[in-house]
């Protein structure tokens, strides 16, 4: 079965593993990278969302466990976010957008993710650290959750900048919060439309194997305070290219 995969499929799987390593090093699960790569490799729109969410659940499970075990976590910050996000991610996942709507929306999300990677200084805290107001956390979680379920991302690219900019978490604790948030959000988003799993590609086990390897590498580096600014900026360029492709600009 493995021998039946094309060289292009193997290359996509390896790149997904590399993306997982980079993203999980900062507490994310890699959905925007998986979506970007699938867009660049020309996978159908109906395959992209369930595949990205499935891989997110795998990477998010490992990342959440490892960051929590390392003490990089805040339940006080997480639970209001999840209270708002989980039901809205379920609702977003239940909405089936036609390809001509889905692709531009994902393109915009990928470009937003690129901004996060290319200009991290834009998300420096604007005030001293303060506990997150519960009502505001629920509202923020609901907004991120709905967009995540709709697009097939976990929401980390929106959550982490928000936590840091608002001063609701330090950078390392934000990694653990984001990982747990992404895991629950991805499960809720996929559960919102279980029928979409019928579109999962036959190559998924291969993708999952490389993503799992990348996740163990990435979380190890993240816990050890590894910084890969140059590599993350290169990934940001990839996201721009993929985002523009999804928008039909080339």
From TrEMBL:
UniProt KW Cell membrane keyword: yes
Keywords assigned by UniProt, alphabetized: Cell membrane, Membrane, Transmembrane, Transmembrane helix
GO CC terms: plasma membrane
Pfam families on file: TauE
Transmembrane segment boundaries: 12-41, 47-65, 77-95, 101-122, 134-159, 204-223, 230-249
Main location per the UniProt record: membrane
Topological type in the membrane: Multi-pass membrane protein
Compartments where found: Cell membrane; Membrane
Membership in a protein family: Belongs to the 4-toluene sulfonate uptake permease (TSUP) (TC 2.A.102) family.
Record-linked PANTHER family: MEMBRANE TRANSPORTER PROTEIN MJ0441-RELATED, MEMBRANE TRANSPORTER PROTEIN-RELATED
Protein name: Probable membrane transporter protein
């Amino acid at each position: 079965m493995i021998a039946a995969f094309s060289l292009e499929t193997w290359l996509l799987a390896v790149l997904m593993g590399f993306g997982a390593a980079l993203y999980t090093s900062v507490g994310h699960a890699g959905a925007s990278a998986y979506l970007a790569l699938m867009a660049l490799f020309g996978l159908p729109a109906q395959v992209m969302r369930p595949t990205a969410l499935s891989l997110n659940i795998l990477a998010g499970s490992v990342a959440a466990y490892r960051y929590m075990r390392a003490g990089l976590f805040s339940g006080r910050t997480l639970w209001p976010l999840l209270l708002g996000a989980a039901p809205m991610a379920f609702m977003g996942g239940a909405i089936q957008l036609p390809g001509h709507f889905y692709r531009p929306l994902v393109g915009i999300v990928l470009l937003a993710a690129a901004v996060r990677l290319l200009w991290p200084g834009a998300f420096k805290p604007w005030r001293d650290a303060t506990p997150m107001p519960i009502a505001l956390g629920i509202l923020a979680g609901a907004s991120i959750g709905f967009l995540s379920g709709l697009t097939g991302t976990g929401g980390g690219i929106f959550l982490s900048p928000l936590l840091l900019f608002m001063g609701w978490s330090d950078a390392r604790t934000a990694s653990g919060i984001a990982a747990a948030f992404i895991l629950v959000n991805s499960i809720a988003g996929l559960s919102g439309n279980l029928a979409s799993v019928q579109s999962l590609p036959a190559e998924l086990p291969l993708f999952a194997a490389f993503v799992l390897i990348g996740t163990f590498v990435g979380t190890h580096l993240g816990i050890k305070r590894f910084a890969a600014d140059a590599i993350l900026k290169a990934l940001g360029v990839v996201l721009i290219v993929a985002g523009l492709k999804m928008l039909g600009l080339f």
